Amino acid sequence: MFLSRLVPHPFLTLLLTFVWMMLMNSVSAGAAAFGLFLGLVVPFLTQSYWPDRPRIHRPLKIVEYILVVLYDIVTANITVARIVLFVPRARLQPAWVVIPLELRSPEAITVLAGSITLTPGTLTAEVSSDAHSILVHCLHAPEPDAVRDEIKQRYERRLLEIFP
């Protein structure tokens, strides 16, 4: 209990310490100590602005999710390059796809929208006002339902395991 009060956001503490060390471009005891000091003070001072911290049930699934997204980014870059170079504009089939969401956590929906936007050829245009669906634009989607199913299977299913 005392440790969670002292370090309210342990991942943020580690991240801030690491970022400070990278900014200093030096591995020294002084830089590490000051980085740790920042990593402890900043989350402690800002904890009142984080009343509903997201709960992560399976943190190791985050690594799997990141690897899937990175793989999809690389393959989508190749696909988009092929489309741009070899598919005539007249044959392009852009589409708007509405994806119904099972996710309810705002953080999970944000991660999903960001993952879709990071993947070349797709863009999250809007989250519905009730947060039950998102609108995605696809550069080339001959089968919009397949795009919807793939996003739900590859991304949303994994996010449902990470966020409650």
Automatic annotation (TrEMBL):
Compartments, as annotated in UniProt: Cell membrane
Top-level taxonomic group: Bacteria
Keyword Membrane: yes
CC annotations in GO: plasma membrane
Molecular function per GO: monoatomic cation transmembrane transporter activity
Main location: membrane
Membrane topology label: Multi-pass membrane protein
TM ranges: 12-45, 65-85
InterPro entries: Cation_antiport_E (IPR002758)
Record-linked Pfam families: MNHE
Family: Belongs to the CPA3 antiporters (TC 2.A.63) subunit E family.
NCBIfam families: PRK08965.1-2
Name of the protein: Multisubunit potassium/proton antiporter, PhaE subunit
